[in-house]
Amino acid sequence: MARKIVVTIPKGGAGKTTTAVNLATALQLLGQKTLLVDLDPGADATLSVGLNADELPYNINHLFTTRHVQPEEVITATSFGLDIMPGHRSLGDTEAGMQPSQIGILRSLIGPIEDQYDVIVIDTPNSKGYLPIVALAVANDVVIPLQAQFLAFEKLAGLLKKIDEVKQGLNDGIRVDGILPVMIRVRTNMSNAVVQQAKALYPHLVYPIQVNDSTKHSEATTAGVPIVIYEPGQQGSLAYMKLAERFN
Q1: Most buried in the list 46, 104, 138, 170, measured by CB within 10 Å?
Q2: Structural domain boundaries enclosing 119
Q3: Which parts of the chain sit beneath pLDDT 70?
Q4: Cβ contacts of residue 15 below 8 Å, gap of 6+?
Q5: How many structural domains are present in the chain?
């Protein structure tokens, strides 16, 4: 059964998609058969690997809404060998209509193909709806990207509480693997202060790894190629490879 890693924090623009895409790709480069699940209606992970969900016959929302579509039909191979279940904006409408009884739906949707993969990495939306909980309900591990800003830092306590609630009720196998400082501006006091405060409050959770801010990340996204492939020697690439090695 595949190890399922959920990348989440309830803040937009905080590095979730970049982390999910590069972690999944790095694991694939390390020899792990990996599936990336784009559970975000924004479909940013899908775009980041060079795919346009509107041009694909199926996306993950078909699994939520259409009985005759099978998981194998949704999975799409990228140009660099990583498999993805593409996201789509229609998933937002599906989330709006979801009921509490559907929180466990992802387990049944990915269950039939789990044995084909070593790892499944799930990108989550910045949403107050059910999709982040749907992801946490199947997770073995949670990776929390921490943007080096106080607004992102303030989300940590609430997220950790939510994960603990999921552990108590929906998924007793879930654990927080760690907090990854991302988008670090190394010469600014704010970045350093946020990272130090996180280390002080969560000393056993903050990874000894960080991803510095760089225009190379935007370049890689525009090119539709994860930075671990786009520029392997870049600081962020090396950091994501180190993160992947923890799960290898």
Answers
A1: 46
A2: 3-245
A3: none
A4: 145, 147, 180, 182, 183, 211
A5: 1
